[in-house]
Write a structure and sequence with these properties.
The complex is a heterodimer of chains A (496) and B (421). In chain A, 29% of the residues lie in helices and 27% in strands. Chain A is α/β, with parallel strands linked by helices and 496 residues long. The N and C termini of chain A lie far apart (56 Å). With 421 residues, chain B is of the alpha/beta class. Chain B has two domains: 254 residues, no CATH class; 55 residues, no CATH class. In chain B, the strands form two sheets. In chain B, strands 1, 4, 5, 7, 8, 10, 11, 13, 15, 17, 19 and 21 form a twelve-stranded mixed beta sheet that branches. Chain B has a ten-stranded mixed beta sheet with strand order 3-2-6-9-12-14-16-18-20-22, with helices on one face. In chain B, helix 5 crosses helix 6 and helix 6 packs antiparallel against helix 7. The chains are: A alpha/beta (496), B alpha/beta (421). The interface between A and B is medium-sized, with 34 and 35 residues.
């Protein structure tokens, strides 16, 4: 492949200069050795043929990361991570050869979600499945609405017609360096936190979206639309910019459980909304949560933040978090522009030994800024679910308004539900309201459903969906239906 | 005498080293050992900084940068005491009992405690409690026998005028046996011109079916630091009822830890913070539901004027055993000045499923509609605002059953509001 040859040449050119790689890897190898040091950062940057400024940017992040400490304040517990015992640049690992080799539990779940076989193979990472059916990369939710083949070939043309840029971030670095340079790290700086610094140093891919002035994106954008999105990557970096008056809805993740070999995920998502722009960012996260005994599972340490820079701009985060062994995630909005609006709608489920510490930050700076937070936490089994959120109102945010509602549902007496809101108000005219409740599924509700012939599990599913309705209705329609099924499946075995 | 000025934790440890052979009970081996352990704990922790999560909103640097002397025990004859609210009053001046100014209740065993408290002094982990254990000189021991109603007792702590900043650490130990009842009105006052640190610790043990009503009126001097903490346990069917009115002081922290240990125990924590000028007041509560079928209620109101800063942190922990818990917490703040700041952190940590727990928090200014309603009926703006502020505070005060107590607290609220106008 030409591109590979090119890469090798570039890397070799760099090698023959003054700098010597600190390890004796054959340059033709497509992975870096285990561990993390400055050489690995340089290697990644060279592999991706990045301009010098980006390498400098990564190195600065790495230097910051070295001085930082892993946060210990979240209510999550896990064995200490050895950051030197991981690969930071590796070719996709070899997957199973056919569906027969795939974990039958996973296949059962696919069947319940009603996923066609071809797509099951792709999702499970069966070798060759993706090559033979490019259309299989279509998200399941969207598949029901669009003809996948035609979309896969035509969406790029359609988007280009409106001047929308939607590509991988690596591609954007080459094609639109001025945009990347202007916005990368402008919302989440390299030294923002431990995981963001790590991500800034070693991120390998992610999405880049730019919606020009006054353009309403004609379709929901999803990671899966991206031609070269073979694997989501361990350190994903997403940057979305909505210019003045632009409107975009972005979907991340998938209702179907993804096979993934990387245990540690540290993604960074940055959103920028200029005057009158609106970004809706929806996530369904269903990575491997570990088995019923709490072994294995993904550590999901994500930094997501939006800046509403423009007047009357709006950012809305919606998330359904059912997967991962550990979730550490606080999608936030910095409301700088006057009359800007931030929203956060979240459902987080922890079953078995899953732990989630998630919530949001709403930072009100501009006058008349508004924020709404609706968080629904569901704990079952030995799950621990924490809502942690911050609402901060600066003295400049006159007449700012916040409403926060956090509800927790407990299923079984071995799980935990926690609420930790921080409310900081320095503005006389601001109005802030917070309420939180914790309860369990009422016996009479269950009885009512059971009496009408519903099984115990269906009854729980119905009640849980009702509990989460305010959040689920925020999801794009195609996603919402899947998400409801997903909630029920995630809670299987937790009742009775 | 050394001229070296010792500040912060080092200052207090230095003073402990110098005083330890003269502190009350110094010859009691158990007490000396306990103080030594407290000193170790305080040395290891120091004064908490804002990096400590529990102290995120309260900066103790004004305290740690100052240097304090041990309070003088000399008797001041020109001391003017505020009027007593109840028939029985025990008076402490600069952390030492003044029996000549006190009248003792007859129904209960009351004594200045040293020597009688063996086995009763706990050593909580918190650094401020360790500081208290290390240096306390005096306090009340209230031991109410089973089935006894000990009535109402006022405990007045007053700081005297002093040129040098002083520090004192009262330690009160209260134990109510089965079915006993006691009401305490704790009044803390001091002169406005003196910088002093008052760091009282209450240990409260409420027995089965007993009821302890504890109202606190904090009116320390304008430069004072008040860092009080309460550690309470409530047995089955018992009730601990706490009301705290924070109106004085420069930097105040009111920390309450209550553990409900027996079935059907109840705890009520209510309070109001009335803040102006450059005051900083922090109410931090920790309610530990450790037994099934317990109920807790918390209502805190804060009114902020000037450049004041209010903090509320309230945590409700429901342990796995504590099924059928009913927990409720509400904290509301009213901002009356553009320079004031309110920080709230209500917290729920729940490990039992059959529970009903909720918390709410609001921050805002006076409701424009309500103001309009009153103005439209011919009430002038100042009166209308005053009515709304008093109505806002009323909810916290109205839960106090004892009329004399409620009267005292309402009068304090009125007095504060009049001074603001």
């Amino acid at each position: 492949m030409a591109a590979v040859t090119e890469t090798i040449e570039t890397v070799q050119a760099a090698t023959e200069g003054t700098y010597k790689w600190g390890f004796s890897t054959d340059i033709e190898m497509d992975y870096a050795p285990k561990g993390l040091n400055e050489d690995i950062v340089r290697f990644i940057s060279a592999k991706k043929q990045e301009p010098a400024w980006l390498l400098e940017w990564r190195l600065k992040a790495y230097a910051m990361w070295l001085k930082m400490e892993e946060p210990t304040w979240p209510s999550v517990h896990y064995p200490k991570i050895d950051y030197q015992d991981a690969f930071y640049y590796a070719a996709p690992k070899e997957g199973p050869k056919s569906l027969d080799e795939v974990d039958p539990e996973l296949l059962k779940t696919y069947a319940k979600l009603g996923i066609p076989l071809k797509e099951q193979a792709f999702l499970a990472g069966v070798e060759g499945a993706g090559d033979s059916a490019a259309d299989a990369r279509m998200p399941i939710a969207v598949d029901a609405v669009f003809d996948s083949v035609s979309v896969a070939t035509s969406y790029k043309e359609r988007l280009a017609k409106d001047g929308i840029i939607f590509c991988s971030i690596s591609e954007a670095v080459h094609e639109h360096p001025e945009l990347v340079k202007q916005y990368l790290g402008s919302v989440v700086p390299q030294g923002d936190n431990f995981y963001a610094a790590l991500n800034s140093a070693v991120f390998t891919d992610g999405s880049f979206v730019y919606i020009p002035k006054g353009v309403r994106c004609p379709m929901e954008l999803s990671t899966y639309f991206r031609i070269n999105a073979k694997s989501t990557g361990q350190f994903e970096r997403t940057l979305i910019i909505a210019d003045e008056g632009a409107v975009v809805s972005y979907l991340e993740g998938c209702t179907a459980p993804m096979r993934d070999e990387n245990q540690l995920h540290a993604a960074v998502v940055e959103l920028v909304a200029l005057d009158d722009a609106s970004i809706k960012y929806s996530t369904v996260q269903n990575w491997y949560p570990g088995d019923a005994q709490g072994k294995g599972g993904i550590y999901n340490f994500v930094t997501k933040r939006a800046q509403c820079r423009g007047k009357r701009s709006k950012v809305s985060w919606t998330q359904v978090e059912t997967g991962s062994a550990i979730t550490w995630k606080y999608p936030s909005c910095v409301l700088l522009g006057e009359d800007s609006v931030g929203e956060f709608y979240s459902v987080a489920i922890t079953n078995n030994y899953q732990q989630a510490d998630t919530g949001t930050k709403m930072i009100h700076v501009g006058a008349r800024t508004k924020s709404t937070i609706v968080s629904k936490g569901i704990s079952a089994g030995h799950g621990q679910n924490t809502y942690r959120g911050l609402v901060r109102v600066a003295p400049t945010a006159t007449n700012a308004r916040n409403f926060t509602q956090c509800d927790s549902l407990l299923i079984g007496d071995l799980c935990g539900a926690h609420t930790v809101p921080y409310i900081e108000n320095r503005c006389l005219t601001a109005k802030l309201e917070h309420e939180a409740t914790t309860s369990r599924i009422a016996e009479d509700q269950l009885f009512y459903c059971r009496q009408r012939g519903l099984t115990q599990e269906d009854a729980v599913g119905l009640i849980v969906n009702g509990f989460c309705r305010e959040v689920l209705k925020e999801l794009p329609m195609e996603f919402a239906v899947e998400a409801q099924k997903l909630l029920q499946i995630s809670l299987e075995g937790s009742v009775g | 005498m050394s001229q070296v000025v010792h500040t912060g934790a080092e200052g207090f440890l230095h003073r402990y080293e110098g005083l330890k052979d003269r502190l009350p009970g110094a010859r009691l081996p158990w007490l000396a050992a306990l103080r030594a352990r407290a000193a170790e704990s305080f040395r290891a922790q120091g004064f908490p900084t804002r990096r400590v999560e529990a102290w995120h909103y309260t900066d103790l640097r004004p305290v740690t940068q100052a240097s304090f002397d041990e309070a003088l025990t000399a008797v001041e004859d020109d001391l003017v005491l505020p009027a007593a609210h109840t028939a029985n009053r025990v008076v402490f001046v600069d952390g030492r009992l003044r029996s000549d100014l006190s009248s003792w209740p007859t129904m209960a065993t009351v004594a200045s405690q040293i020597g009688r408290i063996e086995g009763r002094v706990a050593l909580p982990d918190e650094p401020m409690a360790a500081l208290n254990t290390m240096l306390f000189e005096d306090g009340m021991l209230l031991n109410i026998p089973a089935g006894t109603d000990a009535g109402v007792l006022e405990i007045l702590s007053i700081a005297s005028e002093s040129v040098r900043p002083t520090a004192f650490h009262l330690r009160h130990i209260v134990r109510l046996h089965e079915g006993a009842r006691l009401t305490v009105l704790e009044v803390n006052q001091g002169p406005d011109g003196t910088r002093y640190l008052h760091n009282p610790v209450w240990q409260v043990e409420v027995g089965e079916g007993a009821t302890f009503t504890h109202a606190r009126l904090q009116q320390e001097g304008a430069l004072a630091f008040q860092l009080g903490s309460i550690y309470a346990t409530v047995a089955a069917g018992g009730t601990y009822d706490n009301f705290t009115l924070n109106a004085g002081g420069r930097l105040v922290r009111n920390e309450i830890h209550a553990t409900l240990t027996g079935t059907g125990a109840a705890c009520h924590m209510n309070g109001a913070q009335l803040l102006g000028g450059g005051q900083h007041a922090d109410t931090t509560t920790f309610l530990d539901h450790a037994a099934p079928g317990c109920a807790s209620r918390q209502t805190y109101k804060t009114v902020l004027t000037g450049k004041s800063r209010g903090v509320f942190q309230g945590k409700i922990l429901v342990r796995q055993a504590a099924q059928q818990t009913d927990g409720y917490q509400m904290n509301q703040a009213l901002l009356l000045s553009p320079d004031a700041e309110m920080d709230s952190k209500p917290q729920l940590e729940i490990y039992a499923d059959d529970v009903k727990c909720s918390h709410g928090a609001t921050v805002g200014e006076l409701d424009a509609d309500q103001l309009f309603y009153l103005r439209a009926r011919g009430i002038d703006e100042a009166t209308a605002r005053s009515m709304l502020v008093r109505a806002f505070l009323q909810e916290a005060v109205e839960g106090i059953a004892d009329e004399a107590l409620r009267g005292a607290l309402e009068a304090a609220v009125e007095g504060w509001w009049e001074r603001q106008a």
